[in-house]
Amino acid sequence: MPTNEQRRQAAKRKLERQLVRRAERAKRRRIIGVIITVVGVIVAVGLVYWLANLGNGNTPASANSTDTSTPNQPADTPSSIPTETAPVPKRPTPLAATATCEYPASAQAPAAKPVQPPPTANISAQGTVTADVDTSAGKLKFTLDRALAPCTVNNFVSLAKQGYYNDTPCHRLTTSGIQVLQCGDPTGQGSGGPGYTFKDEVFPEIKYGRGILAMANSGPDTNGSQFFIVYGTAELPPNYTVFGTIDADSLKVVDEIAKAGTVSQGQPGDGAPKNPVKLTTVTIAG
User: Fold this and answer.
1) Strands 270-273 and 172-174: what pairing?
2) pLDDT, tens digit, for every residue of 200-224?
3) Residue 11 and which of 4, 27, 150, 221 are 20 to 30 A apart at CA?
4) What is the rounded distance in angstroms from the CA atom of residue 214 to the CA atom of residue 208?
5) DSSP 201-242
6) Rounded distance, CA 161 to CA 144, Å?
7) Count of CA atoms in the C-beta half-sphere (13 A) of 138
8) Short-list 157, 174, 170, CA closest to 118
9) What's the half-sphere exposure (Cβ side, CA atoms, 13 Å) at 181?
10) Of 145, 143, 142, nearest in space to 127 by CA
């Protein structure tokens, strides 16, 4: 029969084992918590980086008419590209038949290429406009929807008719997370614009997906000339004006650009297209 001293020693050893197990469990919980926090920070930083560079501000790469990458530099290619096109957003309340637009000059950002601001009065908010876009990679066809964004369509048509987009590079391609091709800056640096800005034409119901055409910006009401084509996934807040779509044949052309990959600079899957792409001419039908 154990003595009192033996019972005390046994109880002491049992308590010590319990304390060790508790300490080990607490340590594992702390390690798991740190891992979850680090992963969350990385994801958040990546999304903020992409959103901050979607518009006319600093971009991670420039795309000129020649490939500046080294021959052995690997390109980041999309792991997959969806084939189903996204539905076109619809305004919950239709706009009036005409709109009044404003295109104030931007003193801090002079025009990257000489151009006049668009007309501002009695701008149609009805119907669509077709833009035929010839690129170094193939032909694209845009359908611009005035009912979605009359001032944005008015701006694109004006710039196209003045030849602003002719011989300009598509300077940015993203291949992971958000899949878009961004164009419209004559400098190819991601900071160029027409020398004026105009307001967003957005609404909460906007969703982005394959085939959607939207304006790039560097913050609220900073639209200019840069736009992006969504060829895949794009989980974005409704902060970017949707002003049209591109057709199925055009998406095939963009898919080939994406499959060639992007030469990432800074953020993986975000940089200049591996195969440089240029808008040669943009023609408004009619």
Assistant:
1) antiparallel
2) 999 999 999 999 999 999 999 999 9
3) 27
4) 9
5) ---TT----TTEEEE--SSTT-B-S-EEEE-S-----S-S-E
6) 14
7) 12
8) 157
9) 32
10) 145
Q: DSSP code of 188?
A: S
Alpha carbon distance 181, 228 (integer Å): 5
Question: Residue 130, class by beta-carbon neighbours within 10 Å (0-12 exposed, 13-18 middle, 19+ buried)?
Answer: middle
Structure tokens at 251: 């998406």
Nearest alpha-carbon partner for 244 in 160, 121, 137:
160
* pTM, full prediction: 0.77
- Separation between Cα atoms, residue 38 and residue 16, nearest integer Å: 33
Contact 78, 179 (CB under 8 A): yes
With a CB cutoff of 8 Å and minimum separation 6, the contacts of 159 are 115, 118, 165, 194, 225, 282
Q: How far apart are CA 221 and CA 239, in angstroms?
A: 10
